[in-house]
Predict the 3D structure of the following.
Amino acid sequence: MQSLLAVILAGGTGERLSILSQERAKPAVPFAGKYRIIDFTLSNCVNSGIYNIVVLTQYQPVSLSDHIGIGTPWGLTTPDRNIRLLQPYLAREEGRDWYKGTADAVYQNLDRVEGEDVDTVLVLSGDHVYKMDYSPILEFHRENGADVTLAVTPMPAEELHRFGTVVVDEKGQVTRFQEKVKNPQSNLVSMGVYVFNTGTLRQWLGGGTGHDFGRNVFPRMVGSGRIFAYTFDGYWRDIGTLDSYWKANMEVLAMSPSFLGDAAWPIHTREVVGPPTTIGDNATVTSCLLAGGSLIEGHIEHSVISPGVQIAEGAIVKDSIIMGNTRIGRNCVIDRVILDK
């Protein structure tokens, strides 16, 4: 797919994740033991045959650059495969500033996007957990002659207020886009997966159109451009709050090994070099995800353990997420906790 560029939005502060994103970018927050949240979007790209990728960073960018590097875990180091991390910068040119939103981030890098000489731009959020082959939505976009195609997925009524919702007609064309309203008219939510014609980006970004795709750009496009919705029925979670972060980890734990261990759709990550995990003679481990390099001497149940964790004898860990290099002392009881070092 050499006429395609993937642009991953990874600059958000993730304030609702509290201290988990205080010193790291939200897409760099650990997930499911050994992964980072952005690993899912990056792996979706390479598994879909997309090897030309730009990551737009802003908040705490070092955490992402350290993790992604030159893209070795994703096989992006050959001449025809590459990944670049772009940060906002201040210059004398008019309008150059820190990113004010998702659309503004793409707009400020539009010259670089157009310089890639591609006809299609796949804009992706870097803070969602899902496994998706992007080939069908790209084909859907071309077949419908769309200006932009949004990936959407059904969501329970009690969750709809957290998302942009999409109303479509019988042909799949978007007739209304509502951004985080109390009483939406549809149960289809935007997944943060957008297929744009390159010319459409230039037409609709900038010029006072607003800074955010969901809040500004898409509502204005409805009725004026050919905007379509592609329905995705697989697992997808937005990691927007501490509660949703905990729930998503527990859901992936319940789906494993099929979700994380699918050889046909591997989730790549930067591996942490270290010894294997050691489980002591008196330890008990039930229904857990264990990353490498840990020492387990206590009781852990239905929990997610990152690399380098030490759990002492007599300690009890249940329904919890333990981040890397955390130490839990003797006889401690950790129940339904997210614990970062």
